[in-house]
Amino acid sequence: MAETGRLRHAAVAAPLVSPVTLLRIAIVLGVLAVWEFLAHSGWLYRDVVPSLLSIGRALAALLASPNYYFNLGVTAAEIGVALAIGGTAGLAVGILLGANRFLSRAFEPYLYYLGPTPKIIFFPVMIMWFGVGPESKVALGTLSCFFPIALSVAAGMRQIDKVLIRVGKSFRASTWQMVMKIYLPAMRHPIINGVRLGFGFALIGTLLAETKLSNKGIGFLIIQTYSVFDMPGMYAMLIVLFVLAIGANSLIGKLGGLDSIKRK
Amino acid sequence: MTIAVSSAPGLPRSYAAPLVGLVSFIAFVLIVEALLRVGALNRFIIPLPSEIIVSFGRLFLEEHIVHRFLVTAGECLIAGVMVTLCGVTVGVLMQRFKLFQQACETWVAAFASAPLVLTYPLFMVIFGRNAWTIIMMGFLSALPPVILKTIEGISSTRRVLVDVGRSFKLTATQQFWKILFPAALPTIFVGVRLGLIFALINIVGTEFLINFGGLGQLINDLAERYDLAGTYAAICFVILVSIFFFIALEKGERWLRPVD
Amino acid sequence: MPPPVVSSDAILVADDIVVRFATPEGPITAVDNVSFQVRLGEFVSVIGPSGCGKSTLFNVIGGLLSQHDGIVKVAGETISGPHQSIGMVFQEESTFPWRTVTDNVAFPLELIGMPKAKRIERARYFIKMVGLDGFDNRYPGELSGGMRQRVSLARTLASEPKILLMDEPFAALDEQTRLLLGDKVLQIQQQLKQTTLLITHNITEAVQMSDRILVMTYRPGKLKRIVDIDLPRPRTSEIVSSEAFGRYVAQIWNDLREEASRGMLDEEKEVLSGHEGAR
After folding, report:
1. Residues A64, A42 share a domain
2. B169: alpha, beta or left, given left = phi > 0 and alpha = psi -120 to 50?
3. How many domains does chain A have?
């Protein structure tokens, strides 16, 4: 299974003159051309589709601005802490539920059905509990990423090849050794996938919260560009945000994908 | 005499575990109520559970929560129809034109992991602070899973079924409509289900953020009025709606593909 | 069977083991009053038809199944869980796919806190012993089924158990690989003078490797007969073509045939009664 995935990627990443790459370049150029046309056509309200040049300039200004990096750092820190807390809690709860059939049947349905719900609506509660500072954003991020991680880990625990657990028991491994040397490595794929999902949700939760009520962070900057109608600035920020988000996501995925040989 | 319990299937499933879960939940609520009443927990940030339950009545009578629910449901319906038509079509086209698929599938997958809902300020500029912004957020966030699952569904049709079609000398179009598409439907439904869930989440979320629409706006409203019990009650209501929607989708999917 | 006298060099004693399981159809007895001993350095096989409880016995002796009557003693000590003097090799694929061959084999040494350099050296010794020299840094995913079983074996040997307990380790392999691996195991056993208890359903394998064979009945599993294998040592797979070998196999098959038929009849009855229930 890993081979077919890798084969497809190999075909796509082949020499620069491959038809796929050509098509991609064509699509990108096409979109840019239509964009630029719309920008100069005057059909839309001014600056709703700003010229590529203005977006480019805004982008350059953004990437050179220390204020941007400060806010980026704030958001990144919020997400990092949210993932740390939510991830650890999710891991612990997941291991517990995955290991014990009774607990799983008693409590896992709550996680399963509470997972796909909009967490941003909890933000007013978070503000009441944690104030208007970064803590409330971290809290929302934690809430967002806890569920996918806990559910992935619980499912991963149940999918561990039972014989590996018996091997550990036959060598009389302690509980700690079982967790660190058998359970966790055996679950590395579900864990990585859970963390990937969790990262995505923490990112969204934190950013949305920042757009709602904050004076720092990327979400705040974005809503600021909205309030002053700085469209090139907004586009620039969204572009950078998406690049970073997609990049971080594939980075986490690569971390798990390193095991392609070991995968079984 | 010592008897080991075998893990044989068919052992009667007791309801002990779900019961324990339910009882724990109720006990938790009761404990919170008790702690609040004695002042161990702060009543200015956590309302009494009993108050929250009472507030439900208010929500129905004064806040027209049913009407708001219908507004949200309407937005979801529109977004759902849009994303199904658009997503499945794009997925079908991408699968049909392999080069297109090879070029763009990873892009779609990348967007599946991107914070699309963060573009809501952009759509507020384009559409204003109104329902279309909300619907677009639902639509955009639901699009990637529908497209990806459609491609996956059609691509993973069992080879032998395709061969059956070829043995009957079906044209490409017949092959598609009589074999590939029906075989792909279960997977496509999974994609649509995922998409609808994302749509609901993002629609309610956007309503909350831009303070317009149905249920999400209600929560925002109540929060800004410092109606603590009302806010909590509204949040509970939305969670319940979410859960029912999710269960309904699951049941719907199972009804549509009983074979699996 | 008359109660056996515990001989002085019996390192493993199983005394009156009874294992019952609760199933939806009612309690069944998997193992019924099984008693035997294994002497130091002996190679003993337990053979029986499918469903005779031999894997259950394996789990009992290995300490993974504690709900049973009767006691198991290792070097005079009653066990209450996996014992450090018993090393288990399982039937299924049991190598850790995320560890290299060396790290797999060094696993038991890691658990007891042996320093890294020493672990690797010790692991290398056993990797060589099973004939996987050169594959130290490969992952199980890169190896064949037979090689992976060798890794599992090396891993268990690395813990230097007094008793090696194996549950049909070669069941998933083809006949030729099995014979050759059987050679390897014999060679190792003879080199280390390793006390071994092998659970198997394969008569050829049992006769090839054992000093004694315990033949079990179909469920409820009782000890039917103990056969002393008087073939010369050292042995190799060439022995399978000898006359004496053939006679032992025939003798054991004679015993087993009856049990195996009962097993098949039972299975057929189960299938039929299942159909009745469905109607």
Report:
1. no
2. left
3. 2
